[in-house]
Amino acid sequence: MDKGALFQKLVAFIASVHQITNDMTKDVRSEDITPLQYKMLEFIAISQPVTLSKISECLHISMPNTSRELRKLSEKQLCDKVTDEKDRRKQYIRLSKQGETMMNDAFGRIESQFKERIANLSEEELQEIDRALDVIHQKVFY
Fold first, then answer.
1. HEC string for the chain
2. Domain limits of the chain?
3. Which of 21, 37, 93, 108 could be joined to 33 by an S-S link, Cβ 3.0–4.6 Å?
4. 13-112: in CATH 1.10.10.10
């Protein structure tokens, strides 16, 4: 197998993932938050509890900008900082109840869009997608 060609397919796949992510999330966020704040909440929802530095690193945002946006989200009562009991210097970020409600609503709308996209697929095609996602997750995105 040509690994260079496989890499090019991966690059195209990742670009497609970014595009579909944008398409599926552009209308689900609350008007009370910015697109960056939505991405932060989405990351927190999937990865919580998470540190400030992990948010900064994974979303490619400077630490000062991450801190400022988290402060705004905390003021909107969408996330909370929790101090690590074993290491008082370390803080974790979690969604608040209100943040969880917001993200559950957003994920519910995204799920509806996803189900529309796969509505006409056969059971065999759905199983093929399920298997492909498992393989990609285990072998590439580990």
1. CCHHHHHHHHHHHHHHHHHHHHHHHCCCCCCCCCHHHHHHHHHHHHHCCECHHHHHHHHCCCHHHHHHHHHHHHHCCCEEEEECCCCCCCEEEEECHHHHHHHHHHHHHHHHHHHHHCCCCCHHHHHHHHHHHHHHHHHCCC
2. 13-112
3. 37
4. yes
